[in-house]
Amino acid sequence: AVFGDVSMKTLSDLRKQARQLENELDLKLVSFSKLCTSYSSSRDGRRGDSSSDTTPLLSNSTQDRMFETMSVEIEQLLAKLTGVNDKMAEYTSTPGVTSLNAALMHTLQRHRDILQDYTHEFHKTKSNFMAIREREDLLGSVRKDIETYKSGSGVNNRRTELFLKEHEHLRNSDRLIDDTISIAMATKENMTSQRGLLKSIQSRVNTLANRFPAINNLIQRINLRKRRDSLILGGVIGICTILLLLYAFH
């Protein structure tokens, strides 16, 4: 009888420990499930508007650390509850409690079912969390690659735009130089033509000047003025040509 009382007391203590561990596990699993749900919401909030009121206060790195800590704590509680259930199973096979085996086996089976449910819930929640984290890490990597590509494309586009502008500027400069050369050639041909005409007139005037001395003096003054005008005209044309070239290569 004394052995039976000791066994019953031991079983009562083990059942008390089992219920205490089950209550702790229940609270831990509820918090664990909320953590996983908030982790998923935080990822969705970061993909959306960062100013949204639904954005959680905890960062994902903090949630990752909390996940690891809570996982270890829950695994330790499950291991302790498994040990308590094993000890209760040993006492149900004790010869001194044979008459109580049916009731004890029912109680032990209930505790085993609770342990199995908690273990299944823990592994399911943990697997969902790991799947969400892996998926979001993959999406984050893809988004990072896209942003890197966009930023690189933006730089390339700006460089291409600058090259096109520089190319267009060079084309305009070439066109302006060609126009300037065409004007200079036309001016040269015109001056050559005018020089030939002036030489013809000068030869005729010289012929008249040899015949009339008074006209000779007038012709000399005209020749001096003509040389002066030629120098002025040549200087103006040279300055204009230099200014056009400076503008073209500016």
UniProtKB/TrEMBL annotation:
| Gene Ontology CC | cis-Golgi network; Golgi medial cisterna; Golgi membrane; SNARE complex
GO MF terms on file?
SNAP receptor activity
Query: Which residue ranges does the record annotate as region Disordered?
Result: 38-62
**Parts of the chain that traverse the membrane:** 231-249
Locations listed in the record? Golgi apparatus membrane
Similarity comment? Belongs to the GOSR1 family.
Instruction: Output the CDD domains linked to this UniProt entry.
Output: SNARE_GS28
Is Aminoacyl-tRNA synthetase set as a keyword in this record? no
Summary of subunit composition and partner proteins: Component of several multiprotein Golgi SNARE complexes.
Question: What topology does it adopt in the membrane?
Answer: Single-pass type IV membrane protein
Q: Could you tell me which InterPro entries the record lists for this protein?
A: Golgi_SNAP_su1
Protein name per its UniProtKB record? Golgi SNAP receptor complex member 1
Lineage of the species this protein comes from: Eukaryota, Metazoa, Chordata, Craniata, Vertebrata
Please provide the Gene Ontology terms (biological process) for this protein: endoplasmic reticulum to Golgi vesicle-mediated transport; inter-Golgi cisterna vesicle-mediated transport; protein transport; vesicle fusion
Source organism (scientific name): Cyprinus carpio
* The UniProt record lists the keyword Cell cycle: no
Pfam families in UniProt: V-SNARE_C
What does the UniProt record say this protein does?
Involved in transport from the ER to the Golgi apparatus as well as in intra-Golgi transport. It belongs to a super-family of proteins called t-SNAREs or soluble NSF (N-ethylmaleimide-sensitive factor) attachment protein receptor. May play a protective role against hydrogen peroxide induced cytotoxicity under glutathione depleted conditions in neuronal cells by regulating the intracellular ROS levels via inhibition of p38 MAPK (MAPK11, MAPK12, MAPK13 and MAPK14). Participates in docking and fusion stage of ER to cis-Golgi transport.
Q: Which UniProt keywords apply?
A: ER-Golgi transport, Golgi apparatus, Membrane, Protein transport, Transmembrane, Transmembrane helix, Transport
